[in-house]
Structure formats: structure tokens, C-alpha cells
Amino acid sequence: MPALGSPRRLLGSLNCTPPATLPLTLAPNRTGPQCLEVSIPDGLFLSLGLVSLVENVLVVAAIAKNRNLHSPMYYFICCLAMSDLLVSVSNVLETAVMLLLEAGVLATRAAVVQQLDNVIDVLICSSMVSSLCFLGAIAVDRYISIFYALRYHSVVTLPRAWRIIAAIWVASILTSVLSITYYNHTVVLLCLVGFFIAMLALMAVLYVHMLARACQHARGIARLQKRQRPIHQGFGLKGAATLTILLGVVFLCWGPFFLHLSLIVLCPQHPTCGCIFKNFNLFLALIICNAIVDPLIYAFRSQELRKTLQEVLQCSW
Fold first, then answer.
1. How many domains does the chain have?
2. Are the beta carbons of 265 and 313 closer than 8 angstroms?
């Protein structure tokens, strides 16, 4: 797909602004206010991608190694790690190819570069969609484990989990192919934005409901122990902090990118929106940061997984 003046080829058709020339500049807009442009060096893209790559490979390896982790919940976490892994691999591959082309080390025909660009676009788009889907799947899994604890193992079975995982991957690939093929249609951008809002709303509703149930349970325990105020407040604050981290990371890392897509539909020619378009690379970097943070939130908090991870690292040495 054509890159309409994008600083990076990947998803370049979604960005129609020239590259920033300085790491942080206030560039005067010809028709409006000054624009704050944040340029992300290629070296930073490579570094973030490699860190995410290592983290998520370790998560996948640990879950594959330990049979105690072969459960639906950990399979969803493993698939989230694989989605984040694809985000990292796609960005590292794209950055490496761009650097080689700019240095003249890699010489190839324009048609080949275009095809490679399309493949990378499909990879990154499908990994984004699948990553959000598995975040939602993890939230649903945790919700069922809390509100339907006695029926959990009959509701969330391994065959059913595998079918859900397969459906997510197939839907993600089809969505990415359609999105890249019809990238210049407004309805495609609106569907992607609507999908993000729906997943964010789903996660917010489920996690808030889980927090309310946990606080209610804590109040019941506190009444029995006649220490209602200290226990309830402490548990409520901890739960609220955890909820803020879960939803805040998703919103901060993914929100700017989907805001970018929204503004392309709402105000493609407005000077203020143009200022936001100039920071497209920053929005991609935030998505890679999310791929780094996900293992810390969903995987490394598990004691069993951390223990297995230590064994994996010891074997590698």
C-alpha cells in the first residue's frame, strides 16, 4: 500500500504527514498554531522491539515448559504474548529493512519492497487486533472464574478455549487483510476505532464489576472479624490501584493511535489535527511499550510462571 509521506512505511497510509526532523520541536503550522513534534529514532524502535521480543519469548517458553500452566487462562496469556511478539517482530523487521535500504546495503526492486511492506502491515495490524482480543478474553476468563467459580471448569474447557483462540487468530488475520486492502475507506477506520472502544468498554465493565464483588467480599470478612474500616479501605485502595493500572495502560498505550485514526475521519485537513498526525511514530512506539508492559501485568505476577521462568533462564545458561 502506498505510504503517503509517512516517516515509516508501516501503516504509512494512515499517516499523511512529513517526518519530524528533530527529536522534540515546536514546528509552526502554516495555517494554525505551533505543533509539538516528537521524533522517535530508529534505534529506539529497535531497542523497544528487542526488549519486548525477549520478554514475550520468555513468557511463551515458560508456559510451554510447565504443564501446570497448560490451562485456558495461561493459554490466553500465552496468545497475548504471541500477539505482542508479532508487534515486536514486525517493527524490528520494518526498522531493520528501512535502515538497510537507506544505507544501500539492501538493493531490491520497488515492487518487492512494496510487497514486503504489505506483508509487514498485515502482520502488525493482525497482531494489534489479536492483542486487544486476547486482553478482552483474559478479562472474560477472570470474570467467569470469580462470578461462576463452581462452574468455571465446565464453562471454560480446554477445547472451548482452543476454539476461541483459533477464532480470534482467524478473525484478526481477515480483519488485517481487509483493513490493509481497503485502508482508504472511512468505514474501515471507523470499524477499527469502534472495535477499540468496544473492547475498552468491555474490559472496564468486567473489571469494575469484579472490583465491586471483591470489595463486597472484603466487607463480609471484615464484619466477621469486627475490623470493617481498616480492611475494607485497604483492600478497596489496592483493588482500585490494580484496576487503574490495567485500564490505564490499555488506554494510554492504544488510545493515541486510535485517536489518530478517528481524527483522520473527523478532521483530516484541520491544522490542530495535523499537529497530532505528526506524532504518528510516537503512537506506534506506545503500542510497542504496551507489548513490554503486558508480561509484567498478566504473566510475571504469577509465582508459578516466575519459578518456571527462572528454570528456563538457568537452562539457557
1. 1
2. no
Task: Return the residue matching grid coordinates 481487509.
Answer: 178
Write down the pLDDT at residue 78: 93
Say if CB 40 and CB 281 are below 8 A apart: yes
Confidence of residue 106 (pLDDT cuts 50, 70, 90): low
For range 5-9, the mean pLDDT:
42
- Alpha helices (runs of H) in 226-279, residue ranges in sequence order: 228-266, 271-277
**24 in a structural domain:** no
249: nearest Cα among 170, 131, 150: 131
Whether 178 maps to a domain, the answer reads yes
CA distance 298 to 246: 9
Domain assignment present for 9: no
Furthest-apart CA atoms within the chain: distance in Å: 76
pTM > 0.70: yes or no = yes
DSSP state of 106: S
Is residue 7 in a domain?
no
Which three three-digit cell numbers place residue 197? 472502544
Q: What is the CATH number of the domain that holds 200?
A: 1.20.1070.10
Contact 130, 169 (CB under 8 A): yes
Residue 28 has a pLDDT of 47
